[in-house]
Design goal:
A 9-stranded mixed beta sheet has the order 2-1-3-4-9-5-6-7-8. Strand 5 and strand 6 (182-189) form a beta hairpin. The chain is globular. It is built from 5 helices and 9 strands. By secondary structure, the chain is of the alpha+beta class. The chain folds into 2 domains: 5-66, Orthogonal Bundle (434 Repressor (Amino-terminal Domain)); 93-227, Umud Fragment, subunit A (Ribbon), CATH 2.10.109.
Length: 230
């Protein structure tokens, strides 16, 4: 991947401390290939707060030195022609955009500047309104990345996200910007915290829960359903 100063700084720090990528991954509680994938393949695009804090403690530096101010840009999906909505007698369909995130959604918004439409889905309008309790215009589809939410969400699953629901609620699955990148987590609103804090929980037991300031975990939206190829 192209030169990334944050990734290069981590490589240099690992060499200075005589540490391998595998050793760093183990110290983070990740699988052995995690740091290699992050440094050489660009996945994930940015370290989360929990990982950057642990890595900084191991390397003897400030966590902010290891954090991207915004997530590195990913090569855009090729644009596809927009297909006309299929005609199904008696079953009105609503168009929902599947979007690829090109830049940091740090403000908690999937706007035109931060996304590219990768595809367009046509879903039963009655299902969206009555079962999901959502306005079709407020829905977006995102592709899940990584294994932190397995078995609930697999890498490559599509997430139907209501971007109008931006208030964190305990027990819900949400898409958030946690300061390091977009993440999908179960949310727990911690009581009696000032300033307010959230506990972000992965379904995969290999990933420990972590907390962050509610003001830093910008809500992108609430996940209504997942779509998986079987």
């Amino acid at each position: 991947m192209q030169c990334d100063p944050i990734r290069q700084k981590i490589r240099d720090r690992l060499r200075e401390n005589d540490l391998t990528m595998r050793a760093a991954a183990a110290a983070l509680g990740r699988n052995p290939s995690y740091m290699h994938q992050f440094l050489e393949r660009g996945s994930p695009r940015a370290l989360g707060y929990r990982d950057s804090e642990k890595l900084a403690a191991m390397l003897g530096c400030d966590p902010d030195e290891l954090r991207h101010p915004v997530a590195p840009r990913r090569k855009p999906y090729p644009r596809k022609p927009r297909a006309a909505a299929p005609q199904v007698p008696g079953a009105p369909l609503a168009a929902v955009s599947e979007v690829a995130v090109q830049a940091a959604a740090g403000g908690g918004a999937l706007n035109d500047e931060a996304t590219t439409e990768a595809a367009r889905w046509y879903l039963p309008e009655a299902m969206l309104r009555h079962e999901g309790g959502a306005e079709p215009a407020n829905l977006r589809i995102l592709r899940a990345r990584g294994d932190s939410m397995e078995p609930a969400v697999h890498d490559g699953d599509r997430l139907l996200v209501d971007i109008a629901r931006k208030t964190p609620a305990t027990g819900e699955m949400a898409v958030l910007w946690d300061g390091g990148g977009l993440v999908v987590k179960r949310v727990e609103v911690l009581p009696d915290t000032d300033p307010p804090r959230l506990r972000l929980i992965s379904a995969n037991p290999a990933y420990e829960p972590y907390t962050c300031l509610a003001g830093e975990a910008h809500m992108v939206g609430t996940v209504l359903w997942t779509v998986r190829r079987v």
